[in-house]
Amino acid sequence: MSSNDGKELKEKLFKDRKSGWENLSDEELEKIFRFADEYMYYLNASKTEKEIVQNSKEILIKNGFVDISEKETLNPGDKVFYVNRGRCLYAAVIGTDNTENGFKIVAAHCDSPRIDLKQNPLYEENGLGMLKTHYYGGIKKYQWTNIPLSIHGTVVKSDGEKVNICIGENETDPIFTISDLLPHLAQEQMERKLKDGVQGEELNVLMGSIPYDCDEVSERVKLNILKLLNDRYGIKEVDFISSEIELVPAFKAKSTGLDYSMIAGYGQDDKVCCYTGLRAILDTTYPRKTALCIITDKEEVGFNGVSGMESRIFDTFVLEILEKTGNTKSSSLYKAFSKTQALSADVDAAFNPNFAYAFEKNNTAYLGKGMSLVKYTGSRGKSGASEAPAELVAELRKIFDEANAKYQSCELGRVDKGGGGTIALTLANRGMDVVDLGVPVMGMHSPYEITSKFDVYQAYKGYRAFFNN
Ligand code: MN
Ligand code: MN
Q1: What is the CATH number of domain 114-249?
Q2: What does pTM read for this prediction?
Q3: CATH of domain 16-112+266-468
């Protein structure tokens, strides 16, 4: 055999593991970079789940979607949405096939790891105004110190009035921060295990330092902060009880690398799939199966609760679609679910050369090699996993190949190194065929997560092809 035969044979039999950046046309490159700019704009404007839902709703309305309550009946091509308590959103484009024959679902989540305020947050300590916090989701706590943080949230007063707060995003706004101990005095702290390097109750935020001008009262710094809050928002200390206030990184999403090929940004897990899923459904007209785009909440804390994927509010929305397309039998819901294909649109861990030992190189996702297709998640012997059926994966391979949407097959890190789960489980439990398909992220759950612009664009192409096939 000549060496040429070997080359050909290898090309025929080996899996393509090339970088997605190779052999791209100028036109394709331009599309990738333009899409990335639009995505970064969305990221910067939507840092919390409520902001994501609000901005996504506005994008849907601009593109002809209406609230499902405005429709008496639904017909092929109709575009509707439902917002659940401002925290999660479902959008649908009605297909030509009977809705009882199932849906095509792309489901992403809008909540990201962050620092929440406790309900009695404000206190004064030696002349400094501070805020007590309780972190949300799985974080490495030390990563959240000494970085600029912005405050986002809502305070609901007892008369029902809602006050929105957003401080730290504009150039002239102050920012907030959690200060770590200086190395000079950290001898004792440095002996702690990394996971305890900064502990939960040490994640207290600097809020102010000017005392109120009256030396007849105590806690004057705290008083001055409350006065500022009262002047600006009309709130009192007790109003924090009924508030949802989050601290998120104040910095903006940015192109990363000398070649601009990557994106650093907060909360790309899983806003990258919210955005690509949303863009995909905007490009879906008269699909065969009714297309559903889900932007759910509470994934990072186990997907329970009224706005999580476990919530029956989603089933209620689907029931409304079934009813308004003429399927009024009580069995229709689970019949439809049992014929549904779903993509759990969530991110996967990208290989990190600094910590190569944590990854198994044959089965890990790499930045720039396309969407991450994860057949099963879970940990320790696939425990807690929802494994996708091979039949579904095969069908998707065909769809993505035809659409030239590049993907890579991977799992989260080495066996027994850790693991994680996604909402694939709760979708599968409803009777759907489901697989995880998202975007590889480096430094997941850190304040500044990294994706590849190439992969982001492939996710959009992949979801779009899935909806339209
Ligand atoms: Mn996620
Ligand atoms: Mn996550």
Answers
A1: 2.30.250.10
A2: 0.96
A3: 3.40.630.10
